[in-house]
Amino acid sequence: MPRTEIAPTTIVERLVSFACLAPSVHNTQPWRWRYDAGLLTLRADLDRRLPAEDPRGRNLTISCGAALHHLQLAARALGWETDVRRLPPGADETVLADVRVHRDAPAPVVPSDLALLRTRCTDRRRFTDWPVPRYRLEDLCREAAPWGVHAAAIVDDGARFRLELLANQALTDLELDAGRQAEQDRWIGRTGADGIPASLLPGDPDPLRARSRFRPGLLEDTRMVLHGGERVIALGGAHDDVAGWLRTGEALSALWLEATRAGLSVVPMSQPIEVETTRREIGRSVLGGAFEPHVLLRVGWQAIGRSGLPRTPRRPLADVLEA
User: Fold this and answer.
1) pTM, rounded to two decimals
2) Could you tell me which CATH number the domain at 5-120+316-322 has?
3) Do 22 and 253 meet the contact criterion of CB atoms below 8 Å apart?
4) Looking at the record's lineage, which domain of life comes first (predicted)?
5) Which fold has domain 134-300?
6) Per-residue pLDDT for 174 more than 60?
7) Element housing 169 (H / E)
8) What is the tens place of the pLDDT at every residue in 216-271?
C-alpha cells in the first residue's frame, strides 16, 4: 500500500498564501491559521470583526469560508488532498475548521487554477449594459450545490424591482447610522496591508450611476452607462447560523472563481443583508421563502479593453500563520 505523505510546512505556507487571496468584508482578512502536527486550523480573527456593521459575525464567517475554499482549490491544484472538518466538536467558538493536507502519491500541478486564484479580484467600477445570459447565471448557481448552499438568480422583473427598493432602503438606513459609517471609514482609503485603498474605489459618481456603498475614490470610471446588464445572485441556507455562513463562504469562492474563469465580474452586495428587517423581507418577497439569504452578489460584464486592477493588499504570511 502507498504511504500517506503529510504536507510539509513549506507546502502549507504556500497553500495559506493562496487562501489569503480570498475576498473578505472590507478586505479585513479576518482569519488566522495554525499548523501543528499535520493539522491546519482556521480561526476567526475576532480582533478584525466589525461590531457595528456585522454584529453577529456573518460577513466575517463568510470571508473565512471563502479562504477555506481557496485553500482547498490551491491544494488540489498543487497535487494535494484535503480532509476538512468544519466546526470541530469541543473547539472554542473561534475555530471554524480543521484541515489535513496529505497525498498518497504525487499528482500533476494545475497551473490554470493557481492563476485563477491570483487573477480573481473585486472590480467596483460600473458594469456594462450587456445582459448576462440566463444559462451563465444557472451555471454559476450550480457551483453552490456541492457546498450544501442554496443559490438563486434574481431574474424576474418584479423580484428585481422589489430587491432594488429594499437595497436602497437598506443603504439609507446604513447611511443614517453614524457608528456603522465611522467603522467603515476605518477600513476605506487605507495604505497598509489591509482595507480598501482609495485607488480601487470608483471616482465621483455621475447622476445616472447607482448609489455606492463607499465614498468616492480615485479610480477612473467615466463611461456613461447604466447598470442595466447586471444580475444578482442570492446565496444562503436553511438556517442563518455559523455553519451555514461558513458553507456560504465556500460556495461564494467557488462561484466567484468560476465567474472569473468565464470573464464575468462579481461584487458582493451585503448591505441589504446587514439590516435584519430587509434581510427577512428579501427572503420572503424576493426569494419566496426558499432559503435564508446570507449574501447577495452582483454579477455582470466589465468593459472590453479595461486595464486590469492592481490587487488589494494582503497581510504578511507571518501575521496570519503560526507554524
Assistant:
1) 0.91
2) 3.40.109.10
3) yes
4) Bacteria
5) NADH Oxidase (3.40.109)
6) yes
7) helix 157-175
8) 433 333 333 235 678 999 999 999 999 999 999 999 999 999 999 999 999 999 88
Pairing of strands 321-322, 231-237: unpaired
Question: pLDDT tens digits for 54-64?
Answer: 999 999 999 99
Res. 83: pLDDT tops 90: yes
Tell which residue, 242, 298, 249, 254, has the closest CA to residue 272: 298
Are the CB atoms for 65 and 250 separated by under 8 Å? yes
CB 130 within 8 Å of CB 232: no
Task: Give the residue among 198, 290, 295, 274 at the shortest CA–CA distance from 238.
Answer: 290
**Residue 293: which H helix or E strand, with range?**
strand 292-300
Measuring CA to CA, which residue among 20, 91, 21 is closest to residue 242? Answer: 91
pLDDT of residue 71: 98
